[in-house]
Amino acid sequence: MCPESVRCWKVRSLSSLVPGVLAWPLILCIAGLVVGRFLFFRAAAVDVVVNRLFGWGLAALLLFRFPAPAAALCCVVVATTQLHALGYARHDDLTTATVRRRRRSSGLVAALSVLALGVAGATVYGTGRPFELDRSWTGLVIAVAVGIPTVMNTGAFVRGVVREYRGGNLVDAERVVVAAMVLSTVFVWVTGVLSVAQLALGWPRLGPHLPRMELAFLAGMVVNAVPPLFPLVMALLDAVGLDREGRVCRRLDPLWRDLTSAVPEIVMHPASSAGTRSRMFRMTVEIRDALLHLAPYMPADRPHGDAIEDYATRVAHAVRARQAGSAPRGVPVVTGPHGAGDFETDLGQLLELSRVWRRASR
């Protein structure tokens, strides 16, 4: 081993095919994806696997840029072992136990590959040559150590993706993404075939191999980041209340606060982890319950002007009467928004009532 074990990984590297002005924004986007997924998606076994995939992939991309190519290739190999587990996942059957079982073979290959890359990196560091695939024994070790796990793991992943594509359970947009994932993997394979041909035959003469490997890996990471990006964006919108349900909750909030302050016994206490969809549903139910409790306090119908504004005025009167401790008047026949039988229509009625509530409740 190299006497300076940390520096063994940082051997002389060749120039990258990806300019920094393009690479760094993409790396930062993937870093944001990694951070977001570790914050919002870490409970399910499949989420753990995906998080490891992008975590190791991000480490590889950073090490390519520093440069530390030996360490970068080790991270590439470990990242592809996560693809092996994902490739055998069928719907929601990926559990912690199945992940461990499926990683045994790919994990053993990855460990051997990392060991081989470490030895090759230490040897190349001692000679001062660039860390690259060539016909020397170190170059061949690098090719085998990266090629075998990459082919094994990406092959399993593509089989799983194609299986989902043929299953007929994907919408058109998902099919486009799946096709892009397969094509990005094929691009990785093509660069590998070109490297093998160049090593064996000296043709085609495409220059150094490692920059092409970095390019192929970056392309694969970017394309494969698209599917988990959509649920992350929705989770972020949900967290800051910018999703549809969050906007609906904000519109209902003045009406909900005034009605539940008059009828506090109907308020439910959800779990702290409840999302905006759950909160929206709870608010609509509680507003409806409050309107039923307030109905005996409403004055009789006096239709004039806009019906919804007239109803809002009578609800506001009922709120004040109940808060003042007045006796109920009975259950009058009132004209106003009633439960429509389907949630969306019912929600639309309550949003209309909330729209005029501030003016009516003055």
- Poorly predicted segments: 1-12
Radius of gyration: 30 Å
The assigned structural class equals mainly alpha
Strand content: under 5%
Overall 3D form: elongated
How many domain regions? 2
The averaged pLDDT comes out at: 82
Q: Looking at CATH, which topology of the largest domain would you report?
A: Rhopdopsin 7-helix transmembrane proteins
CATH class category name of the largest domain:
Mainly Alpha
Helix content: over 70%
- By CATH, the architecture of the largest domain is named Up-down Bundle
Count of helix runs = 12
Give me the strand/helix succession. Answer: HHHHHHHHHHHH
The biggest beta sheet is recorded as: none
Number of strands: 0
Q: Separation of termini? A: 81 Å
Describe the structure.
The chain is mainly alpha-helical and about 350 residues long. It has 2 domains: about 5-235, Up-down Bundle (Rhopdopsin 7-helix transmembrane proteins), CATH 1.20.1070; about 240-360, no CATH class. It has 12 helices and no strands. The chain has helices spanning about 20-40, 45-65, 70-85, 95-125, 135-165, 170-200, 210-225, 225-240, 245-260, 275-295, 305-325, 345-360. α1 (about 20-40) runs antiparallel to α2, α2 (about 45-65) runs antiparallel to α7 (about 210-225) and α4 (about 95-125) runs antiparallel to α5 (about 135-165).
